């Protein structure tokens, strides 16, 4: 007999992998001077933000599919605005990197995301320094350095843009945890777009006026409505599909899917963009970095399982897992979640800066619930 929920879960995973890979390759094709030739990453990102904000506005205010949250001016000024600023920065720098380096090399550099997130978390006090995690971060960093050394078309400007975008995204994720969760604010994907996308658009407008608007006035830039509409639609669909995947799968499954997606994307990019040449040193370096990421994932999953109370009976634990998974489908605040697989979903997972708010995560409410239960038992 066919297990329909399991089939549906793997269908969502397949959609996520296809959309995530497709959006990245699509953005590269649009921005690259060798193909569609629209070398304006800020403009493309602003189109994403405007489209996502408009769709969210229609769903909330016109069709009333989702109810808006209670947003005070204080929360908006102290939380939404700084988070949107770093979100806009991460999208800007990440998309600009496509003009200078290959998709394959960008994916290899993205292995640094756990390093950036852990570093920002320690600096902001949301993570504690740990020797085992630190050694994994060193392994990841060494692997990325080796991979960079083996890059034939290494470009320092593109590398700096990508690494800066990674750290900007990591800081945004940590700030989201520190600021929004302290206020007790929970956002689903639509309300996240509704509040953050317009603010990010405003932040992008300033560098657009200074860097890209003057060039657009004198250059022959082609604009195809259907190209940009489909591109923004894919980015929006990717954001929503990620939420569905997080709501239906566990941390282990998501991590495996993320690693599989990276390998598929690297392979596809070399086929679609022949100029993307991968060397043996690239592969060795990325493999080393991937070992560090896998070990880091194992530590996080192990820590998540340790939060499960040993005193709970199996039926009680299943009931708690089911209740949390059901509740998680209605909650969408960034950072991490403890889910039914007992793994702690880190903010660096499922991270693609190309899609609006894709890297937002389920909140750590699940972890908080388990922590509260532990406190009551002490």
TrEMBL record:
Residues 11-297 form the Sugar phosphate transporter domain. It is a multi-pass membrane protein. The keyword Membrane applies. Its main location: membrane. Coiled coil: none annotated. One of its GO terms (cellular component) is membrane. It holds the Pfam family TPT. The chain crosses the membrane at residues 7-26, 38-63, 75-93, 99-121, 133-154, 160-180, 192-211, 223-245, 252-273, 279-299. The keyword Transferase does not apply. It is found in: Membrane. Keywords: Membrane, Transmembrane, Transmembrane helix. This is Probable sugar phosphate/phosphate translocator At1g48230. The gene is LOC110421710.
